[in-house]
């Protein structure tokens, strides 16, 4: 092999640069999302596991039912009634977008456009 | 094998005939008389639909089912000067409608204009001066035959069960076909971000009002009057009708229910609609 020294050092530098993000973050502890859960209410409109994976499905269903089908009947969970609404339903128990919604959304790099139109409780105070 | 041209042509012709006729014969055999009966039935059904289709114009059959509508008594607004502006304010603060102070970017759900602009198709020749000065409230007519709904490619605007032409802001792609289709100019486009703020942090909403219970829209979305479905759901009247209050300048209800207040008002008064010749069957009526 010609220029063995140059080729091997070049490859070594390449590998070091390419794997930089991996070994740079090796020691650092990862930020694990911990959404701020409500203290007084224990039960959501679905199970925790379902809400964690499919809250967006619920929101889309509620949206279609309320806006398009005029099915505005309240959702009842353990004697408490909830409006089928992000702003007037979900945000009553989960009032802080930063500590609840964004906690996981930032972690998973999803950027839903709910807040382009809907108000967070804090915004209007 | 020696094949003569004559024989070859015969075989080719026979195979062609067989190839064309056998599949259709098979389908006929498989479906039997059923296929024939259903095609005949379809033809009959189409025939019976013809008169109904003819009814889509302005002079056809009366539509049935729930149809919310509104009667606006222009004379009452003459007696109560400033009431029309109050109705507009009630609506626009309720729905966080932005006010940029600029007619080019204007967003309006309900607005005040004069008779000549509200009813351009009627003659203004020798029109009495008193009528010329009257404020006329204009809004979405929630037509029984809405052209905007037919124009919308995403069904973002549609006619719901109670006859309201609803805007689903989530689904609007901002193509503005509905604005071109609406003969009443009842639709506005968000050229700017409706959440624009002044330097002091206040939203540029109408008269600085803000309703935390109703969302805003986003840039690139068409908006218009929705007859306040969120208020009807909790047993309230639309915001503008509530603002008009006891004056009865605005009456709201199901125009197809003969026992409703609005049906009685419609029966007792001579009313006109905006541009009825367009065949859209507007559900907003005016007492002049």
Identify the notable features of this structure and list them briefly:
heterodimer; A: 125 residues; mainly alpha; two-stranded antiparallel sheet; 5 helices; elongated; B: 288 residues; alpha+beta; Alpha-Beta Plaits; 2 domains; 4-stranded mixed beta sheet; 36% helix
Major sheet attributes of chain B: 4 strands, mixed
Class of secondary structure makeup of chain B = alpha+beta
For the record, the count of structural domains of chain B works out to: 2
- Overall CATH architecture of the largest domain in chain B: 2-Layer Sandwich
| Helical fraction of chain B | 25-40%
Q: What is the alpha-carbon Rg of chain B in Å?
A: 28 Å
Give the CA-based shape of chain A.
elongated
Helix fraction of chain A, binned, reads: 40-55%
Estimate the strand proportion of chain B.
5-15%
For the largest sheet of chain B, list the strands in their spatial order.
Answer: 8-1-10-9
Tell how many strands the DSSP assignment of chain B holds: 10
What string gives the helices and strands of chain B in order? Answer: HHEHHEHHEHEEHEEHHEHEE
Beta strand % of chain A: under 5%
The dominant shape of chain B is: elongated
CATH topology of the largest domain in chain B: Alpha-Beta Plaits
DSSP, total strands of chain A: 2
What's the N-to-C terminus distance of chain A? Answer: 72 Å
Question: Describe it for me?
Answer:
The complex is a heterodimer of chains A (125) and B (288). Chain A has 125 residues and is mainly alpha-helical. Chain A has a domain at 48-109. Helices cover 45% and strands 5% of the residues of chain A. Chain A contains five helices and two strands. Chain A has helices at residues 4-18, 20-24, 48-68, 86-93, 101-107; strands at 75-77, 80-82. A two-stranded antiparallel ribbon of chain A has the order 1-2. Chain A is elongated. Chain A starts with a helix and ends in an 18-residue tail after the last helix. In chain A, 7% of the residues are buried. Chain B is α+β, with helices and mostly antiparallel strands. Chain B folds into two domains: 5-54, no CATH class; 68-287, Alpha-Beta Plaits (2-Layer Sandwich). In chain B, 36% of the residues lie in helices and 12% in strands. Chain B has eleven helices and ten strands. Chain B has a four-stranded mixed beta sheet with strand order 8-1-10-9. The interface between A and B is medium-sized, with 16 and 18 residues.
């Amino acid at each position: 092999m010609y220029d063995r020294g140059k080729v091997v050092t070049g490859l070594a530098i390449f590998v070091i640069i390419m794997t930089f993000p991996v070994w740079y973050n090796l020691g650092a502890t990862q930020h694990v999302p911990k959404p701020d859960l409500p203290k007084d209410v224990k039960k959501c409109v679905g199970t925790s596991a379902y809400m964690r994976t499919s809250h967006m499905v619920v929101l889309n269903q509620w949206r279609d039912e309320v806006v398009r089908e005029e099915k505005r009947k309240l959702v009842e969970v353990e004697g408490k009634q909830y409006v089928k609404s992000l702003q007037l339903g979900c945000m009553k128990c989960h009032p802080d977008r930063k500590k609840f919604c964004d906690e996981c959304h930032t972690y998973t790099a999803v950027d839903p456009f709910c807040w382009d139109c809907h108000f967070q409780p804090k915004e209007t105070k | 094998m020696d094949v003569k041209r004559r024989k070859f042509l015969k075989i080719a012709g026979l195979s062609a005939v067989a190839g064309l006729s056998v599949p259709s014969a098979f389908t006929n055999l498989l479906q039997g008389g059923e296929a024939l009966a259903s095609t005949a039935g379809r033809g009959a059904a189409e025939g019976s639909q013809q008169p109904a289709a003819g009814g889509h114009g302005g002079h056809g059959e009366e539509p049935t089912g729930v149809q919310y509508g509104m009667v606006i008594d222009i004379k009452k607004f003459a007696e109560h000067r400033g009431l029309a502006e109050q109705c507009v304010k009630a609506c626009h603060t309720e729905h966080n409608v932005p006010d940029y102070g600029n007619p080019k970017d204007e967003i309006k759900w309900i607005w005040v204009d004069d008779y000549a602009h509200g009813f351009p198709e009627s003659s203004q020749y020798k029109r009495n001066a008193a009528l010329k000065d009257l404020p006329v409230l204009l809004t979405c007519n929630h037509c029984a035959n809405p052209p905007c709904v037919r124009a919308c490619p995403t069904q973002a605007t549609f006619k719901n069960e109670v006859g309201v032409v609803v805007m689903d802001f989530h689904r609007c792609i901002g193509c503005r076909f509905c604005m071109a289709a609406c003969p009443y100019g009842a639709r506005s486009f968000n050229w700017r971000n409706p959440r624009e703020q002044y330097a002091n942090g206040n939203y540029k909403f109408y008269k600085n009002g803000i309703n935390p219970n109703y969302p805003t829209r986003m840039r690139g979305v068409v908006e218009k009057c929705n007859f306040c479905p969120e208020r009807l759901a909790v047993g309230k009247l639309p915001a503008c009708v509530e603002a008009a209050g006891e004056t009865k300048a605005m009456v709201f209800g199901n125009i197809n229910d003969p026992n409703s207040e609005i049906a009685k008002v419609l029966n007792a008064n001579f009313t006109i609609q905006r541009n009825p010749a367009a065949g859209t069957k507007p559900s907003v009526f005016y007492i002049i």
